[in-house]
Write a structure and sequence with these properties.
- The complex is a heterodimer of chains A (about 375) and B (about 230).
- Chain A has about 375 residues and is α+β, with helices and mostly antiparallel strands.
- Chain A folds into two domains: about 1-45 and about 255-385, no CATH class; about 60-235, no CATH class.
- Chain A has 14 helices and 13 strands.
- Chain A has helices at about 1-10, 15-50, 70-75, 105-115, 120-130, 140-145, 185-195, 220-230, 240-250, 255-285, 285-295, 300-335, 350-375, 380-385; strands at about 55-60, 65, 80-90, 90-95, 100-105, 115-120, 135, 150-155, 160-175, 185, 205, 210-215, 235-240.
- In chain A, a hairpin with a 5-residue loop joins strand 8 and strand 9.
- In chain A, helix 10 (about 255-285) runs parallel beside helix 13 and helix 12 runs antiparallel to helix 13.
- Chain A is elongated.
- Chain B is α/β, with parallel strands linked by helices and about 230 residues long.
- Chain B has a single domain (about 25-55, about 70-225), classed as 3-Layer(aba) Sandwich (Rossmann fold).
- In chain B, about 35% of the residues lie in helices and about 30% in strands.
- Chain B has seven helices and ten strands.
- Chain B has a six-stranded mixed β-sheet.
- In chain B, helix 4 (about 115-130) packs across helix 5 and helix 5 (about 145-155) runs parallel beside helix 6 (about 175-190).
- Chain B is globular, with a radius of gyration of 17 Å.
- The relative contact order of chain B is 0.20.
- Classes of the chains: A alpha+beta (about 375), B alpha/beta (about 230).
- The interface between A and B is medium-sized, with 23 and 26 residues.
Chain lengths: ~375, ~230
């Protein structure tokens, strides 16, 4: 107990330095956790994507639409259970800064394939009945204050003009990490308006076909079968699992993810250097005390252990506080970034990584002071001021 | 008790070898109180450090209670010091964040004694040096004399047979120095502790039973005092 008390008391001997080091450690652990969560959030779309859903898009590029007529042929492919369509709308709400994803879908078939987006019966009836209506996710509604009955206007970027939608209701996520930052409206309404407004975009076309398959193990086989249907046609397709499709998006921003990951490790390296400096100064200042302990009969290992213990204790305290702070800070960050991330949750693995990073900092910071203290010759140490 | 034969100590300072002790031989009986005196560089502190086992000789033999401490490795020497030697330093060398009681109890962390027994011993040691009412005070809340008394209590706590004191009164006013010397005298006479004390102060040396003068690393004279 006395030795443990000595460790605790030693940590706070130089209060100013200890508080600054502690704060540095907390901020580093917090930053590490936050950046790791950003990286995870980046991949969360792909991770939560289903292997039992296939996405069929134009083989040239996602921006080229496919004819709606492809759908009936896709539906006939062996292994396909059901099929729906989706088209990216890309509208702006009031200001270009107000970005959120909007999709034109066929609601009954879409929400059957995506049971994780939950609609109450009342909302479902309203939405399905009214072609000009839309549903928004809970988080999106909270961010912009959308409420059922509101009429919102989006300025089309791909489909020019102003587009009015009646908010039929709010959809909820089945799980905490389900993306509730999107808006869905009727593809039929978009198609009608495209024709009526004579927009020079392909009418009767969709962005992607989404199919659910009975056996995820046959995903590759079914994908090939779908693409073969349209090979050598003017509108060739590329079919892949939803997960591969999402990963394709992530791959486009891979450099950013790598940079964020690198920064998170650099932050830990910096705090390692700072803490190593603190521990080195501490050991130097206490040379005489360590020599005294050795003179009293404490072994070099024990005295070096005191340095290690102090460093580890500081690292552990900083790590625990840093981990604890990550949760509210991540929540605030998620709030501030709006719908940028479909889900933004600090995972248990991230917390463990944060604690391990803190403890690694404690170990690295203690190595050189430990060696120095271990080697202190008592006679020289006692002379130290 | 202490038998020293042909003790040599050479320090390397830069490119030069400095001979500090030059074939010194000495015998100190159990229960003696010896003051080591001599000019700076005469080797008195080096001799004290070697006897206490916190430094190693270049050559020679140091036997304490029949054990040749020059043959012990670092770990064995640390154990030997913990059991047989009590240290009193000029600047007390207390751990500043610990209370007087905790400083005294510290060496007992190396023993298997239960907490209750450690507590009883530490309290008794502090009471013996007249600081029973200062147990919860940290060193900076104590005067120099009181700090040195805590250091004496710490030196006594493991009941060592040998106490080494390096200028124990060097940082104290005359009254406090006198109190400390009286205390050392009592330890020697009433508890039978063998004490080796380095001092520059002839008045402090008078507290010892014998004064050994060192000159240039060799034994000068041995003078019996009337203490």
């Amino acid at each position: 107990m006395l030795i443990l008390r000595l460790l605790f008391l030693n940590i706070w001997r130089n209060k100013g330095r200890s508080v600054l080091t502690f704060l540095g450690l907390v901020i580093a652990v917090l930053a590490f956790g936050l950046l790791s969560t950003v990286v995870q959030a980046w991949y969360s779309g792909a991770e939560s994507a289903s292997q039992a859903r296939l996405i069929t898009r134009s083989s040239i590029s996602l921006i080229f639409p496919l004819p709606l007529s492809h759908g009936e042929r896709i539906r006939q492919v062996d292994g396909v259970e059901s099929m729906t369509v989706s088209r990216w709308f890309g509208g702006v709400y009031k200001d270009t800064r107000n970005f959120f994803p909007q999709f034109a879908v066929d609601p009954p078939s879409y929400f059957e394939i995506y049971p994780e987006y939950m609609l109450s019966d009342e909302v479902r009836n309203k939405f399905y009945r009214d072609r000009r209506s839309a549903v928004v996710g809970r988080r999106l509604a909270q961010q912009y204050g959308f409420a059922p009955g509101d009429i919102i206007t989006l300025k089309g970027q791909i489909f020019p003009g102003n587009w009015e939608f009646l908010i039929a209701g709010i959809y909820e996520g089945k799980e905490e990490q389900t993306d509730t930052g999107k808006m869905y409206f009727h593809w039929a309404y978009l198609n009608e308006e495209v024709k009526r407004r004579k927009i020079s975009r392909d009418a009767d076309s969709v962005g992607v076909f989404i199919t659910s398959i009975a056996d995820p193990g046959r995903a590759a086989e079914v994908s090939m079968a779908i693409d073969e249907l349209f090979s050598n046609s003017a509108k060739e397709t590329l079919t892949e699992t939803e997960q591969a499709f999402q990963l394709g998006f992530v791959a486009m921003t891979e450099a950013i993810v790598v940079a964020i990951r690198a920064v998170s490790y650099v932050v830990i390296l910096i705090i390692m250097a700072v803490m190593a400096n603190t521990m080195a100064m501490t050991a130097r200042e206490r040379t005489s005390e360590y020599a005294t302990l050795k003179a009293l009969g404490f072994s070099p290992k024990f005295v070096a252990g005191l340095v290690a213990g102090e460093s580890m204790l500081m690292a552990l305290l900083g790590g625990v506080v840093g981990v604890a702070l990550t949760y509210p800070v991540a929540a605030a960050f998620h709030e501030a970034t709006g719908t940028l991330f479909r889900s933004f949750f600090v995972s248990f693995d991230t917390s463990i990584m944060q604690l391990l990073a803190a403890l690694a900092t404690g170990v690295v910071a203690a190595i050189f002071p430990m060696i120095k203290v271990y080697r202190i010759r008592i006679v020289e140490g006692l002379r130290a001021i | 008790m202490i038998h020293i034969t042909g003790l040599r100590k050479v320090y390397r300072r830069g490119e030069q070898d400095v001979l500090v002790l030059d074939g010194l031989s000495l015998h100190v009986n159990r229960g003696d109180f010896v003051a080591l005196m001599g000019p700076s560089g005469s080797g008195k502190s080096t001799l004290l450090n070697l006897i206490a086992g916190i430094d190693r000789p270049t050559s020679g033999l140091i036997q304490v209670d029949g054990a040749d401490i020059t043959q012990l490795n670092d770990a064995q020497l640390a154990q030997w010091r913990a059991k047989h030697v009590g240290f009193i330093f000029q600047f007390y060398n207390l751990i500043p964040v610990l209370t007087a009681y905790e400083n005294v109890e510290l060496p007992l962390q190396l023993t298997d004694l239960p907490a209750s027994e450690r507590r009883a011993k530490a309290e008794a040691a502090l009471a013996a040096v007249g600081l029973a009412d200062r147990m919860t005070h940290t060193p900076n809340e104590l005067s120099g004399g009181q700090q040195q008394r805590v250091a004496i209590a710490r030196a006594l706590i493991t009941n060592p047979s040998l106490i080494v004191a390096d200028e124990p009164t060097g940082d104290l006013d005359r009254q406090s120095a006198s109190d400390i010397l009286a205390m050392l005298n009592r330890l020697n006479r009433e508890m039978g502790k063998t004490i080796i004390m380095v001092t520059h102060d002839p008045k402090a040396a008078e507290a010892a039973r014998a004064v050994i003068h060192l000159e240039k690393g060799q034994l000068g004279s041995i003078v019996e005092t009337h203490a």
